[in-house]
Amino acid sequence: MDPLFRRAVLAGKKFVEPYGALFFLDLAVLLLYAGLTLFLALHHEIWRDEALIWLIARDASLKQIIVDIARTEIHPRMWYLMLVPFAKTGLPVVSMQVLHWFLAVMAAGLFILRAPFPRIVRYLFILSYFMFFEYAVIARSYVLGVLFLFLVAVLYRTRFSNPIRYLIVLALFFHTEITVFTLAGTLFLLFLFEMTRQRRWTPPLVAVSFLPALSGGAYFLQILSFSSGTSACQSSPGDLGFSNILRAVGHSFFVRFQHVSSELAIVLGVVFLLLFLSLMISRPKMVFLFLGGVSGLCYMFLTQYSGYLRHQGFLFLVVLFVWWIRVHDLVAPFRGWVADIHARWTREGERIFLVLLVFILCLSCSQTFDAAS
Fold first, then answer.
1. Mean pLDDT value across residues 83-100
2. Are 151 and 103 in contact (CB under 8 A)?
């Protein structure tokens, strides 16, 4: 391993060490989250789109789920197949809600125990609208995208020391949710580039690398065969376009403002996004991952589907993901006065970013209580 890269990896260990003096406080907050979300999930009335997936898992054959229904349902098959054992053995639909809740708690646990954010950010995030309600109570496949997103972030540090495990998780990541498909592809391409540049390939590793390639290719074929005219995934032309991307940016960061002032949410969301990108300017790999991660979402909002909060929330999640793994990336060096300006801006900019992040999460927590009530 390159010495500079090795020092960067070792320096990042302190950000992901889960145990410490406040570990039991983390665990208590996680248990509180688990108890509250379980109560909400068990008192949540099943929506039509939730019930549809359960009925498909119960009544359709495996061939129909894997092959035929892919033409009318664009979501990957993983969530459907996970429900099959519960639905076909006659268990009630509440089993789907409990399974979904369990996956949400796992995702929250990864974030609380392993994310390199101050505790106030970690606690507010799991109590915010997306993590507390949208991806915890409403039983849809989006929770798989969140869970594997955080799992990839945890494994990113050891992607070179344990590449086979990383590649297997990436292969599964492709089949979690369409909202993370381009991010999974970008992560895979970056890994191929890094491995080739460092000349780390071995015959077993080359063989395993075909798993995410085949997994991503299989789901891409499903997307190509999807017929949007037979799905609920339809939007009028007036709902699409660049303005829809701006609405998604505003609502993903400032979900509280969606019914108050959409224009204010858009302005604040764009400012927050520009601040984030300015702090990533010295990390080209992170910029590449961010752009790759949001490209699929932007394409969907621009040409295919106006989207709801559950889709727009993944813009926020991609930002958190890139900020999470940035500690394991080398900083491109600047020289002279540019380096001094960059160093000062990085120090101050990161403080501003975290303050704004806390503000955003506080607003989102207030939306949580409205949604849960």
1. 95
2. no
